[in-house]
Specification:
Layout: E1 3-8, E2 24-29, E3 32-35, H1 47-53, E4 62-64, E5 79-84, E6 91-95, E7 105-115, E8 119-128, E9 134-136, E10 144-147, E11 152-156, E12 161-165
Antiparallel strand pairs: 1-2, 2-3, 4-9, 5-6, 6-7, 7-8, 10-11, 11-12
């Protein structure tokens, strides 16, 4: 009753006021952010605004070879392919395969399901035209603690305790920090 899961994949791209955040999500519990967009709007067009706040790096989405989605362009679009709102298991499928321009990403489908009352399942289907390095971004205003041996992250807010379990066909590296690039 207190969980909110928001998902975005827009056919309008990242043009004008929209961010480069196709197939991104935010999770709130008890009215508080657990995992959400990050960064600060200091001034339109400054380095942090362009390189983090509206960039894919500031959102819970994916980078390919440290490259994000197209910014300032309607060509960096996504779309919600399927959406089903059932009481027990709401489900959404987003396709952001066109959002990355010439970065080499060929498929980015994100499947999101809410298993009521409080389990969120996110499955990413990722393909590239080369051997790529993928970054799965997750932001929280609270401390995220890694447990790399178990492919797990935990975060605690004043309203929730969360656990994120990763399953991958390849070994994972965890890089948890509290800095912005650019600052």
């Amino acid at each position: 009753r207190n969980l909110m899961l928001a998902f975005r994949s827009s056919p309008f791209g990242s043009y004008n006021h929209a961010h480069a955040d196709q197939n991104s999500f935010n999770i709130l519990f008890g009215g508080r952010r657990v995992f959400s967009n990050s960064g600060y709007y200091i001034g339109y067009g400054d380095a942090h605004f362009k390189g983090w706040y509206i960039h894919s790096k500031g959102h819970n989405t994916v980078l390919i070879d440290n490259k994000g989605q197209l910014t300032g362009s309607p060509d960096g679009y996504g779309r919600v392919v399927r959406y089903l709102h059932e009481y027990r298991i709401p489900y959404c499928l987003g396709d952001a395969s066109n959002a990355y321009g010439e970065a080499g990403l060929t498929v980015f489908r994100r499947y999101v399901a809410l298993l009521r009352p409080s389990v969120v399942v996110i499955y990413d289907e990722l393909e590239a035209d080369h051997a790529a390095e993928w970054s799965w971004l997750l932001h929280s205003s609270e401390r995220i603690s890694p447990d790399a041996g178990n492919n797990r992250l935990t975060a605690t807010t004043s309203t929730a305790r969360s656990r994120v379990d990763f399953f991958s066909a390849t070994p994972l590296n965890f890089d948890v920090h509290n800095r912005f690039d650019p600052p």
